Amino acid sequence: MEAKPYLQQVPAYRPGKPIEELRRELGLKGEIIKLASNENPLGPSPQALEAIIKTAPTVNRYPDGAAFELREALKETLGLSPREVVIGNGSNEIIDFLIRAFVSEEEEIIISRPTFLMYERFVRIAGGKAISVPLKEMRHDLGGILRAVTSKTKIIFLDNPNNPTGTALKIGELESFLADLPLNVLLVLDEAYFEFVRDQEVVSGLSFFRDDERIIVLRTFSKAYGLAGLRIGYGVMAPKIATILEKIRQPFNTNLMAQVAATATLKDRNYLSRVQRIIWEGVDFLNRELVALGLLPYPTQTNFILVDLRRPARPVYEALLHQGVIVRPMDSYGFENCIRITVGLPEENQRLIKELREILQ
Ligand SMILES: Cc1ncc(COP(=O)(O)O)c(C=O)c1O
């Protein structure tokens, strides 16, 4: 029995450590906090919970594969035509669809290094190749990316803002990039963290994707909308590209609970502003406190902060685990001295700072 040879080179994905795994491994008794996977600390919208409870008795039926209600809600709230939207089992699934639809074996995508790990994983699984261009001053190097384009390049993936650095591209930078990008290359703007952006010069691809058929925008309900555990996200694109992805999509790729919860959350306008307020206050608090500890937090447009500890970060990460605090070590992203902290509730942020202070002393 032999799998495709190139699969042997694909490393296993290492997600943020789950709370229960840490409890089992270290036998910890007290409260464990997880600030590792850029999740929303607030819990889901009460309206999403209500929709889930109301829908639970009907899970003996398949969901509406076309997710009609959710597309309607996206039309009402964001002005997106249902023909422009493909709903995925997390926005991860849309990344997978795009690669399966457009990248053949031996063809290429271009990504930054480091960036969100799934672009490279999906392309390698498909037998294609990821060409990675190092970040420049912690930002996407758009000039370097343009120089890396070849006749094999099919898609460029830019997470805007970038995970793990938290930096975002301004509209002017994107406009000049598009002007120089060959017409046959797709540009995916992955806006998983867009709802947390505060910089006014950072503009969503949703406001200009209709001007250029090469642009695809990804959005998720896993972050600001608090539904990571249900797995639902979407891609926005020209209808002719959406039609291609719809051919790849399994008939029931998103589950019923995810669909009703996402629809309800979109309609709950108060929820998003509550989340934004708590995350922005958390970012400001953590930045102040981290600087006071002599550390270097990178400015962020997201719900996480990349922090340079100015020493090897692994031992600090391990020590935090023993105190029941899970953050993300960044050595696998090439940042030996950094951890990535997801902004939590105020008391979680305070606890992190307290534990960090004790460890660093
Ligand atoms: C940049 C980026 N894109 C996409 C995702 C995946 O989101 P989803 O949960 O919708 O698959 C993440 C999650 O961490 C991310 O950081």
UniProtKB/TrEMBL annotation:
A Pfam family in this protein? Aminotran_1_2
What domain of life is recorded for the organism? Answer: Bacteria
The pathway it acts in is: Amino-acid biosynthesis; L-histidine biosynthesis; L-histidine from 5-phospho-alpha-D-ribose 1-diphosphate: step 7/9
Picking any one GO biological process from the record gives: L-histidine biosynthetic process
Reactions mediated catalytically: L-histidinol phosphate + 2-oxoglutarate = 3-(imidazol-4-yl)-2-oxopropyl phosphate + L-glutamate
List where this protein forms a coiled coil: none
Q: What is its EC number?
A: 2.6.1.9
GO MF, one example: histidinol-phosphate transaminase activity
Family, per the entry? Belongs to the class-II pyridoxal-phosphate-dependent aminotransferase family. Histidinol-phosphate aminotransferase subfamily.
Question: Which NCBIfam families did the record assign?
Answer: hisC
Q: How does it assemble?
A: Homodimer.
Recorded protein name is Histidinol-phosphate aminotransferase
Organism annotation: Thermosulfuriphilus ammonigenes
